[in-house]
Amino acid sequence: QVQLVESGGGLVQAGGSLRLSCAASGVIFKINAMGWYRQAPGKQREMVAAMPGDGSTNYADSVKGRFTISRDNAQNTVYLQMNSLKPEDTAVYYCNADVNTAYLQGEYWGQGTQVTVSS
Fold this sequence. Notes:
Layout lengths: L1 E6 L2 E4 L4 E9 L1 E12 L6 E6 L6 E2 L7 E6 L4 E6 L8 E11 L3 E5 L3 E6 L1
Parallel strand pairs: 2-11
Antiparallel strand pairs: 1-3, 3-8, 4-5, 4-9, 5-6, 7-8, 9-10, 9-11
């Protein structure tokens, strides 16, 4: 079983910064892709930033230039540095990973961490 545990959410004023972390644990053979998604009240979950596993990065247009995704493969951890936060960034942020274990390949989600940006 693979678990993803997020941390780093909280309340911040507009213009501030937060850094989210997501650590994967379990019997992991290889982590292929990792990314961050978010879901605001009344809205669908959307991709924020992703690292497909080939070294590239993808960002939602709304966060380009403000958010940076990075990975520490040795620690099976992905980070999301969020700068110049806006009230519209308020949402529950979820970590996502595509993982190969010894027996199967699967997609896993973290429990979510709340980010609230006040105006």
